[in-house]
Amino acid sequence: MPKLVIRDDRCKGCSICVEFCPKDCLEITDRLNPLGYRPVGLRDPEACTGCAICARMCPEVVIEVWK
Amino acid sequence: MKPVFVRPQSLTDKPFHFCPGCHHGVIHRLVAEAIDRFGVRERTIAAASVGCSVFLYDYFDIDVVESPHGRAPAVATGIKRTNPDKFVFIYQGDGDLAAIGTAEIIHAANRGENLTVVFVNNTVYGMTGGQMAPTTLLGQPTTTSPYGREFGQDGYPIKMTEMLAQLEGVGFAARVAVDTPARLAQARKAVFRAFETQLEEKGMGFVEILSSCPTNWGMKPLEAVRRIEREMIPYFPLGVYKERKGSDAL
Q1: B212: left (phi over 0), alpha (psi -120 to 50) or beta
Q2: Are A42 and A67 in contact (CB under 8 A)?
């Protein structure tokens, strides 16, 4: 199963990754990170195929994908 | 486990200062990937601009010279001519390249300086507070055109890629966007081609990248991403405008 490493302390919650995820497995969480933004989280790890579109679209380069 | 996507080695670990949803981060990554891909990190010198890209030296693990506003092509010319073995790239925004530094970029291109130029077009002055740039679209409100840009008073948005593609000194000229995964892949390819153009000594490699500026457009990040396709691409058509092939002389 692919592994997503999200450095959510750096996420600015722009939700571009959520919009472009083809499997719709990311979501904006309702907690706050140290920057004061609501970071992204993996909602459905089973559905993730490790395509890395989220990581490529992320303007902050906070997502790493391993397979 | 094998990495599918990891942070490029040429990017330092410092978090970007950019606003949420700003495409500068994506474009920084594309450039860093190109540096890694061609293995030129140890001999790369960048000329940074003034604007949101001013902190380039913090984010790239390379040597960077900071230029006065708009003068990055002139600074880079000096670096490249005195150190022809170095890889030199310029990273400029539209207020920097298309307004204040128009003379510098046109003449550097016309002289056929062997440089790579990454031109980030977000149709507005970013860091200085959202003033109208030469690339601002007609009807677009900015802090200095609160009722929208009007051609009778402000003229038309300038198309830099088309203009520079006419010049003999330019080896590669393309306009790309980074708003969807498919266009991002094309943008990556274009940045790589612009790097190759310099490595093959075919003149200037110029890439214009359409980018969003959610803060100064007054939009949420996703609305700003959609505006690129809705308003910018119809006026600034994407594509490769010039490509000098293998045996073509400069």
Answers
A1: beta
A2: no
**For position B248, what pLDDT does the model report?**
59
A12/B21 CB distance under 8 A: yes
CA distance B122 to B134: 11
- Residue B204 host element (H or E): strand B204-210
CA separation for the pair B167, B40 (Å, rounded):
27
Interface of A with B in 2-21 (CB under 8 A): 2-3, 10, 12-16, 19-20
Classify B24-243 by CATH class.
alpha beta
Which ipTM score applies to this complex?
Answer: 0.95
At how many degrees (to 10) do helices B102-110 and B72-82 cross? Answer: 30
Cα torsion angle, B56, A12, A59, B180, sign: negative
CATH architecture assignment, domain A3-66: 2-Layer Sandwich (3.30)
Q: Spell out the residues 6+ positions from residue B168 whose beta carbon is closer than 8 angstroms to its own.
A: B110, B112, B203, B250
**A55 CB near a chain B CB, below 8 Å?**
yes
Candidates A18, A54, A57, A64: best to mutate against B (most CBs of B within 10 A) is A57
Q: How many CB pairs under 8 A join A and B?
A: 73
Residues of chain A found within 8 Å of residue B191, distances taken between Cβ atoms? none
pLDDT tens for residues B145-191? Answer: 999 999 999 999 999 999 999 999 999 999 999 999 999 999 999 99
State the DSSP string of B72-128: HHHHHHHHHHH-TTSEEEEEEEHHIIIIITHHHHHHHHHTT---EEEEEE-SS-TTT
Taking the domains of chain A in order of start, what are their residue ranges? 3-66
Distance CA B95, CA B101 (A): 8
Residue whose entry in the numeric block shows the structure tokens 């990454």: B118
Q: Give pLDDT tens digits for B191-215.
A: 999 999 999 999 999 999 999 999 9
